[in-house]
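FW: tagging you since you asked about this chain on Friday. Here's the raw sequence from the shared folder, copied in full. Didn't touch anything.
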Amino acid sequence: MRRIEWMGSRLDDLIAMPEAVRSEFGHGLYLAQIGERHLNAKPFDASIELIERYDGDTYRCVYNIRIDDDLYVLHAFQKKSTRGIAVPRHDRETIDARLKAAKQLAATKRKSDQRNRKAN
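HL: got it, structure written out here
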C-alpha cells in the first residue's frame, strides 16, 4: 500500500470540505494507495484529479502516484472559476509548485534510504 504524503495544507483543506466530498476523495485516495482507480479519476497533466460535484459546487483533489512509491496529494480545492472546466491559474500554479516540492521530497527520501542501507 502506498504511503500518502500531504503537500502543504491539503489534509486540512480536505477536512474542511463537505462530508460527502471528503468521503469520495478519501475513497479515491484509498483506491490509489492500493493501485486501483476511482471512477471519477481523470488525468491531469502528469498527475491525477478526482472531481466531485456537491450541492451545485465542484471540488477537486489532485494527486500524483508517479513519484517513487508514495502517493503525493498536491492540492484539494473548491473550483470557483467562471471559465467552464478550466482550472484557475493560481490553482494550477499551486499544483505545479507542489509537484516540484514532491519530487524534491522524494529525492531526499531516496538519499536517506541509500545512506541507511549503507550504514546497515
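FW: The two ends are 25 Å apart (CA to CA).
HL: agreed, and The CA atoms of residues 112 and 118 lie 10 Å apart.
FW: great, closing this out.
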